[in-house]
């Protein structure tokens, strides 16, 4: 698996430091608010589980599975719900937890959906923001890393369902796509 990685972008330690920083900030901003953290499956699962353990406040969690990539490295632009929330968001302070914001299609869709469902507030925490990938102008409120315009894997992020279990984030070598 490791031989498919051209370059390590963020080490385990880099990621840990960023997750601690984001967790501390969220703990301050959501003190006493009992927010609902929504993990966007599957990519955000690793980040979500680490993040919530850095927050010393009551939080609730739920999961939503939406997909626009399938097995490709380019977004289809069309977002589908594969698994909906179990919890009502009406009147709740929700925090969407994303591993990466790339084209913005997933986030745009989710923000629209949750506002239709009358969440009291909607904020986004994204481990990574790939601003160069954006085709729809959406912004995350809390960002871990600004990433370059490359396809990254590891720490939850996949290529064709692989590499999610790498403990660091890296750039995939081209040989992986080209055969
Ligand atoms: O800004 P966008 O261009 O919409 O890209 C970001 C989204 O794409 C990836 O999910 P994907 O649809 O690949 O599903 P996965 O998390 O199950 O891999 C990633 O985890 C984000 O949710
Ligand atoms: O760079 C990426 N890597 C993995 N999944 C993704 N989904 C959007 N962008 C990416
Ligand atoms: Mg994916």
From TrEMBL:
Question: Protease among the record's keywords?
Answer: no
State any single GO MF term.
magnesium ion binding
Q: What is its EC number?
A: 2.4.2.8
Location(s) in or outside the cell: Cytoplasm
The highest taxon in the source lineage is Bacteria
The alphabetized list of GO BP terms reads: GMP salvage; guanine salvage; hypoxanthine metabolic process; IMP salvage; purine ribonucleoside salvage
Q: Which family does it belong to?
A: Belongs to the purine/pyrimidine phosphoribosyltransferase family.
Which cofactors are reported in the record for this sequence?
Answer: Mg(2+)
Q: Which InterPro entries match?
A: HGPRT (IPR050408), Hxn_phspho_trans (IPR005904), PRTase-like (IPR029057), PRTase_dom (IPR000836)
- List the pathway annotation: Purine metabolism; GMP biosynthesis via salvage pathway; GMP from guanine: step 1/1; Purine metabolism; IMP biosynthesis via salvage pathway; IMP from hypoxanthine: step 1/1
Q: Where is the Phosphoribosyltransferase domain?
A: 12-159
Report the NCBIfam families cross-referenced here.
Answer: HGPRTase (TIGR01203)
Where does the protein principally reside? cytoplasm
- Know the name of this protein? Hypoxanthine phosphoribosyltransferase
Tell me, what does this protein do in biology? Purine salvage pathway enzyme that catalyzes the transfer of the ribosyl-5-phosphate group from 5-phospho-alpha-D-ribose 1-diphosphate (PRPP) to the N9 position of the 6-oxopurines hypoxanthine and guanine to form the corresponding ribonucleotides IMP (inosine 5'-monophosphate) and GMP (guanosine 5'-monophosphate), with the release of PPi.
Q: Which UniProt keywords apply?
A: Cytoplasm, Glycosyltransferase, Magnesium, Metal-binding, Nucleotide-binding, Purine salvage, Transferase
- Record's Gene Ontology CC terms? cytosol
Do the record's keywords include Translocase? no
Q: Which reaction does it catalyse?
A: IMP + diphosphate = hypoxanthine + 5-phospho-alpha-D-ribose 1-diphosphate; GMP + diphosphate = guanine + 5-phospho-alpha-D-ribose 1-diphosphate
């Amino acid at each position: 698996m490791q031989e498919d990685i051209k370059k390590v972008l963020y080490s385990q330690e880099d990621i840990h430091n960023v997750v601690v920083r984001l967790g501390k900030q969220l703990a301050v901003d959501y003190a006493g608010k009992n927010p609902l953290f929504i993990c966007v499956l599957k990519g955000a699962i690793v980040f979500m589980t680490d993040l919530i353990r850095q927050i010393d406040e009551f939080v609730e969690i739920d999961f939503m599975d939406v997909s626009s990539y399938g097995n490709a490295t380019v977004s289809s632009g069309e977002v589908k719900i594969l698994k909906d929330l179990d919890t009502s968001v009406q009147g709740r302070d929700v925090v969407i937890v994303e591993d990466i914001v790339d084209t913005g299609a997933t986030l745009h869709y989710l923000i629209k959906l949750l506002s239709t469902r009358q969440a009291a507030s909607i904020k986004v925490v994204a481990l990574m923001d790939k601003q160069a990938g954006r085709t729809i102008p959406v912004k995350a409120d809390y960002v871990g890393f600004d990433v370059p315009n490359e396809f990254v894997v590891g720490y939850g992020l996949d290529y064709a369902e692989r590499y999610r279990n790498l403990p660091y984030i890296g750039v995939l070598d081209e040989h992986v796509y080209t055969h």
